[in-house]
């Protein structure tokens, strides 16, 4: 099959490299200098240094050409843009008259202004499009780029989309599971990033493994409560895109969100941390949205609120932890 990956960040690049080992794959980015370098070196030194990409992988800066590459009914387009860029990408595809027959998105989070999940943004921009879904799960781009084993989930209400995604990705060291709980998968992918900031703060303060375990467990309870209120199924949150992704992001040293938390604990400012990070940390972008949605649905999410206090209200990390510990006792 033919596959086009739109977005040459770390995750888009890693997945394009995986796809190119089995399919006719094209990687698109708007940055001409980056694409020129990729064509010459077959390495994305900016976002995935040290990973050699297959010689068969193609590169493109023209979006219309990239979409044309995977325009057939048997093809797939992978949207590797962050949540903040998803709506513009959908509108551009529509304006070009090149909306693909089947596509999946990789972004995790809520749109900041509207507080919409990615599938809601897709529905708003392309209300008549049926074969689309989300690909998510516990995954670091570096490990996928190195060919290490990984398991992901594609969630879609369209059997055609699930089948296309399975056909594209399920080979070599990548295992793909399928489901139709789009809401549950997207809530898990969004909330786990906020909780990873919390565990990073805890670890950065040296609070120990007991505290980390408590944060992950109670954080999972927060995720499940919110997801169920928004229409997700409880069992989704004990799977790859809930507990699995939370464990990885909250404990793995390759996690950008965990890194943000650890550096906040060391006394660095958020602006300084994000400026030096060089990659998107979605937990920072969507923390306010998660907290606002929880309040609107009267869902108790104290860990999320504590993270927002540290990120945006100037509360010292250690004071936020103390406030959590002072909460009244309650039944689990």
**Biggest sheet strand line-up:** 3-2-1-4-5-6-7-8
Largest sheet: 8 strands, mixed
Q: Let me know the average pLDDT.
A: 97
Low-pLDDT segments, ≥5 res: none
What CATH calls the topology of the largest domain is Rossmann fold
- Name of the CATH first level of the largest domain: Alpha Beta
Query: Strand portion, in percent?
Result: 5-15%
Fraction of residues in helices? 40-55%
Quaternary organisation: single chain
Q: Can you name the CATH architecture of the largest domain? A: 3-Layer(aba) Sandwich
- Tell me how many strands there are: 8
Listing every helix as H and every strand as E from the N terminus to the C terminus, the arrangement reads: EHEHEHEHEHEHEHEHHHHHHHH
Radius of gyration: 19 Å
What is the approximate shape?
globular
CATH superfamily of the largest domain: NAD(P)-binding Rossmann-like Domain
């Amino acid at each position: 099959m033919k596959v086009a990956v739109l977005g040459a960040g770390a995750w888009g690049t890693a997945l394009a490299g995986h796809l190119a080992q089995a399919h006719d794959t094209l990687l698109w980015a708007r940055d001409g200098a980056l694409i020129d370098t990729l064509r010459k070196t077959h390495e994305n030194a900016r976002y995935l240094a040290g990973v050699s990409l297959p010689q068969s992988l193609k590169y493109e800066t023209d979006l219309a050409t990239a979409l044309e590459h995977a325009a057939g009914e048997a093809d797939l387009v992978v949207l590797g843009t962050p949540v903040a860029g998803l709506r513009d990408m959908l509108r551009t595809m529509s304006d070009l008259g090149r909306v693909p027959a089947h596509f999946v998105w990789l972004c995790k989070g809520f749109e900041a202004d509207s507080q919409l999940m990615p599938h809601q943004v897709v529905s708003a921009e392309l209300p008549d499009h049926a074969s689309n879904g989300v690909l998510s799960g516990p995954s670091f781009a570096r490990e996928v780029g190195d060919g290490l084993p990984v398991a992901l989930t594609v969630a879609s209400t369209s059997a055609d989309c699930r089948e296309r995604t399975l056909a594209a990705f399920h080979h070599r060291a990548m295992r793909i599971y399928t489901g139709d709980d789009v809401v549950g998968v997207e809530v898990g992918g969004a909330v786990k990033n906020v909780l990873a900031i919390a565990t990073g703060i805890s670890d950065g303060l040296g609070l120990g493994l007991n505290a980390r375990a408590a944060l992950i467990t109670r954080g999972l309870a927060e995720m499940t409560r919110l997801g169920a209120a928004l229409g997700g199924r409880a069992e989704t949150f004990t799977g790859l895109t809930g507990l699995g992704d939370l464990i990885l992001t909250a404990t793995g040293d390759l996690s950008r969100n965990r890194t943000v938390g650890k550096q906040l604990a060391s006394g660095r400012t958020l602006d300084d941390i994000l400026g030096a990070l060089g990659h998107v940390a979605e937990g920072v972008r969507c923390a306010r949205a998660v907290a606002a949605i929880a309040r609107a649905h009267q869902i108790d999410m104290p860990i999320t609120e504590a993270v927002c206090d540290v990120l945006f209200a100037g509360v010292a990390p250690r004071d936020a932890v103390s406030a959590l510990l002072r909460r009244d006792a309650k039944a689990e």
